[in-house]
Design brief:
The complex is a heterotrimer of chains A (153), B (222) and C (180).
Chain A (H helix, E strand, L loop, with lengths): L1 E7 L5 E6 L10 H22 L8 E5 L4 E6 L5 E6 L7 H18 L13 H12 L6 H11 L1
Antiparallel strand pairs in A: 1-2, 1-5, 3-4, 4-5
Chain B lengths: L2 E7 L5 E6 L5 E6 L6 E5 L2 E6 L10 E5 L2 E6 L5 E6 L5 H6 L6 E6 L5 H20 L11 E4 L3 E6 L5 E6 L7 H16 L13 H17 L2
Antiparallel strand pairs in B: 1-2, 1-12, 3-9, 4-5, 6-7, 6-9, 7-8, 10-11, 11-12
Chain C lengths: L15 H18 L3 H27 L7 H17 L4 E3 L7 E6 L21 H13 L2 E9 L8 E10 L10
Helix pairs in contact in C: 2-4
Family (chain C): Belongs to the TRAPP small subunits family. BET3 subfamily.
Function (chain C): May play a role in vesicular transport from endoplasmic reticulum to Golgi.
Main location (chain C): endoplasmic reticulum
Chain lengths: 153, 222, 180
Amino acid sequence: MIFNLYIYDRSGTCLFYHEWNRQKQVDVSREEDFKLMYGMTFSLKSFCNRISPTDPNIGFTSFKTSQYKLHFYETPSGLKFIMTTDLQIQGDIRFLMHTLYKDVFVEYAIRDPECELNKPIKSKLFSEKLNEFIQKQPQFGNIAQTALSSIVK
Amino acid sequence: MKIYGVYIINRAGGLIFSRDASPKIEVEKTFSYPIDIKFKSYDEKIVVAFGQRDGIKVGHVVLSINGVDTGFQDEGRSYNMTKLKDGREILKILDDESSYPLSIKFGRLRMTANEKIMLLSMFHSIFAMSVQLSPVPRSSGIEVLEADTFKLHCFQTLTGIKLIVITDPRCSDMNIFLKKLYELYADYALKNPFYQNDMPIKCPLFEEKLTQAIDTSERISN
Amino acid sequence: MSRQSGRSNDPRKVSGELLTLTYGALVAQLVKDSESDDEVNKQLDKMGYNIGIRLIEDFLARSSIGKCKDLRETAEIISKNGFKMFLNITPIVANWNQSGDEFSLIIDNNPLTEFAELPDEHKSLSYCNILCGVVRGALEMVQLEVETKIVQDQLKGDNVTELKVKYIRKIEEAAPAGDD
């Protein structure tokens, strides 16, 4: 099950945030939540690069706690995609985020001349397409998953 | 599977035990003028910024030039790795055509004791943030952290001590080892009447038992 | 100019000639609106830059290429992947300087200049200056600061068009802003 998704530009501005099945809100404002998440992944990146026993190539990719898993994907241009899911999630989520980058972000944000690159994305079309993309993923939700498997049968 | 490091941090985020076994990564190569590697001076070190080849990687530090080690101890000032032992500045040597050919040794710098303390206290706060940012209620902090070159496994005891192991990235489950580590900590540190709670662990017996536990774990998982 | 090789099944590809004509019309209009050739060159570079900082994402997303290890790899990828994908040409990478921080992209069948001839009164116009901006903008987004300029131009009687790229520095990642 997918809980939420953050997209940051390389200077740490949160370009997009959406949640689907989030069950707990942080007790701070949205902006504070974005800042905390960016700060945490930034620290994780430098922590991993330094504590790594050998020369890192990609560095930090994910972590899990008792309740959720956080997946991190960064493009060479410094865009950061952060997704949290439940622990039952199957498949390669970093690949899913790359596909999201390619099929949704580039198509509906980068190619949109109205869209400023370092400001939160306001485009309705973008969020619609993104929602569509996420919700059609088999990992999206348990309900969707069971529905899908019953169709297959 | 290889165990690269074992760390224990107390409730306040202080490092009270560390043991690591990172492999030594060093490359020596002879260059003629002009050198096609880009350097930068960073944090009192000369670091490769761009231009990766023959095992020399971005982030590697210049360790010696023509056999002279880097690291200059200025009187009353801190240790400086932008200079050679004899006080010459590395960037100047690299820019000076007449000093070539140069045999330069590069390497990945191991963590210093201070760096370890800093990094583990950083993990302590990242751990707390991972709880706060959880999208679901009643989450623990980070249990497993994955990077391309290693996996970190963390077990927090009910008393708030964090036991951390760093392993090969292919290593799947370290719960047995972490539990063993907890036992050893309880037995050979806490039960030692001369050990003071929350202070660095300096117990030879603990070290010895830990070495055994690491050996066993590496053998079983291979 | 058609992107046959890069995306053969893409129904959205347009005729190469249309792009050549569009670009020509754009430069001509800029020349009309500006005081000097220099100003036009600057405008073209700026437009290219704005294209470059977006185009890089399209490029990275489609090609799944990771971070480059050195400038030689960067040069090869710009030529064999970048130019290939968007202009369907593969400039030759040449003229490396000794310290390996400067190279040229040699273009001999530049689609942008296919129908263009420089009028005598615009001898200092760098017709393809947009390419400089594109390369500079794209590289800036992958943490490479470079200087780019056209040093040979087929429109000025040279045999080839030569775009020179000079490495300046690696850009460091910004740390998160603190709470003020």
